[in-house]
Amino acid sequence: MSPASGERPDVIADVRLTGSDRLDPFGDEPVDVHLRDGVISDIAPAGSLPRRGAVLEADGAWLTRGLVDHHVHVVQWALTAQRVALGDAAGAAEAAARMGAAPVLEDGRRVGTGMRDAFWPDAPSRSVLDAATGDVPTYIINADVHSVWLNSAALRREGFPLDDSGMLREEPAFEISRRLNDVDPVVGDRYVAAAMRTAAARGVTGIVDLDMAWNPGNWARRLETGFDTLRVTFGVYPALLDAAIAAGLTTGDALDPDGLVRMGSLKVITDGSLGTRTAACSHAYAGDPGNTGVLTIPPDELLDLMTRATGSGLSCAIHAIGDVANSHALDTFAATGATGTIEHAQLVAHADLPRFTRLGVGASVQPEHAVDDRDLSDSIWAGQTAMAYPLRALADVGANLLFGSDAPVSPLDPWAALSAAVHRTRDGREAWHPDQTLDAATALAASSAGGSATGNDLAPGMLADLAVIDRDPLTAGEQELRATRVAATLVAGRLTHSAT
What secondary structure, in 3-state letters, does the chain show? Predict the structure, then answer.
């Protein structure tokens, strides 16, 4: 019998290797991958060495390093399971009507998610939402999470003024998300556990959790109740920086003896988003000549935060979407000597591209956003002179690309991200800015723990964080990549998912 989830196979038999920067001699020939003590102990032609112990039969499938999603909001993503999906709503009236028919949650609220009001012909208003939802507090979260549409009952419940639009943006919207995500830990952890099992079933062996919460405490609690599905690196936000420093947390510190959950970066949001039209840009948004977005953290405050974090042993993950925000973030990395990443880098000035490499700043990007936002970018960013979603341009200057989903903004699915990066399209449309497509080998490496700079080969001595998949991602087409099936996922040699 094949090993089941939770067990540790000693051999992955009859599997083919894939990945970038390979030095092995096997090509497409099947091999046996021998595992011991959580690492790859040997790779040999199939059947050439004794298959001792438990054998995971791969039957000619492909083996790659386990995939890592470098940007997830874990609780918010997990709670989408109980929220109304509105990504396909054609307008404000339709979204409001669907919320009016939605079930009321146990806390007395209705919550919808994924709205894209920038595409709607009718503008959201409090009166439209009130007419459809009545006295039940109702919240609709934008797909980019930078704005939330509330009815009167919700605004009163949360203590906000009854603005005619019913829209809250940036920090007030984040505060609403924090409150909506602040569920009973027993309930929330149950949803998180289910979401992480689903991620493991897609070949994911690690995530970076950027929830707006005290993540050290949350993950310590989950570890105590048996969480072991994948590796987690978590961040903290400025409001909790002092607490992290006081706790003596530095980047890389493990919360458990196995090193499954570790401290990550200080996360700072320095501008808004494309969908909410608040990303800080050098040129005004089309049709809105007075709007160039907002810097939500002044440059001098960002300098102070990154200096304190760096001096305390913390790396930095800086949210920057517009070109102005990216320039300020890179300036501050240079001034402080901080290590870390820029999160999103969706609009980057040409002169700033090589600075990622010179400063050693990782580009933590979400390729599926380019496909989601192509029409919006072509309209409201039409006058921008910086480069939108510059994946190939960043790779060409040697920047380290780290792929993620920003779930719930996009689903936690690395194969969708890979497909978007390699093919720059979805659903049969022509590729959007095909000059920015990536080769599959670079994209696969960007989806692994170290990013594109580390390659994606497999060799003895490496940690056995692995995924057995039904196709070679280096040759798969756009729809084939998205349809990739995962037969098994292993973290340190232990099966966290088995399709058998």
Answer: CCCCCCCCCCEEEEEEECCCCCCCCCCCCCEEEEEECCEEEEEEECCCCCCCCCEEECCCCEEEECEEEEEECHHHHHHHHHCEECCCCCCHHHHHHHHHCCCCCCCCCEEEEEECHHHCCCCCCHHHHHHHHCCCCEEEEECCCCEEEECHHHHHHHCCCCCCCCEEECHHHHHHHHHHHCCCHHHHHHHHHHHHHHHHCCCEEEEEECCCCCHHHHHHHHHHCCCCCCEEEEEECHHHHHHHHHCCCCCCCECCCCCCEEEEEEEEECECCCCCCCCCCCCCECCECCCCCCECCCHHHHHHHHHHHHHCCCEEEEEECCHHHHHHHHHHHHHHCCCEEEEECCEECHHHHHHHHHHCEEEEECHHHHHHCHHHHHHHCCCCCCEECCHHHHHHCCCCEEECCCECCCCCCHHHHHHHHHHCCCCCCCCCCHHHCCCHHHHHHHCCCCCHHHCCCCCCCCECCEEEECCCCCCCCHHHHHCCCEEEEEECCEEEEECC
d(CA 43, CA 66): 17
Distance CA 182, CA 120 (A): 30
pLDDT in tens, 97-139: 999 999 999 999 999 999 999 999 999 999 999 999 999 999 9
Whole-structure pTM value: 0.96
Pairing of strands 494-498, 486-491: antiparallel
Question: By three-state DSSP, how is residue 369 classified?
Answer: helix
Residue 22: pLDDT band (50, 70, 90) is confident
Question: Which residues is 488 bridged to in the sheet?
Answer: 468, 498
- pLDDT tens across 329-341, in order? 999 999 999 999 9
Q: What is the pLDDT of residues 194-249, one digit of tens each?
A: 999 999 999 999 999 999 999 999 999 999 999 999 999 999 999 999 999 999 99
**In this predicted model, what pLDDT tens digit does every residue of 331-380 receive, in sequence order?**
999 999 999 999 999 999 999 999 999 999 999 999 999 999 999 999 99
pLDDT exceeding 90 applies to what percent of the chain?
Answer: 97
Within 8 A by CB and 6+ apart from 230, the residues are 196, 199, 200, 204, 205, 206, 207, 260, 491, 496
Residue 442, token pair as written in the block: 């670079």
Q: How far is CA 274 from CA 97, 143, 294, 298, in A?
A: 26, 11, 11, 19
Which amino acid is it at 179? R
Dihedral over alpha carbons 282, 287, 291, 296 (to 10 degrees): -80
pLDDT in tens, 46-72: 999 999 999 999 999 999 999 999 999
Round to the nearest angstrom and report the end-to-end CA distance of the chain.
Answer: 10
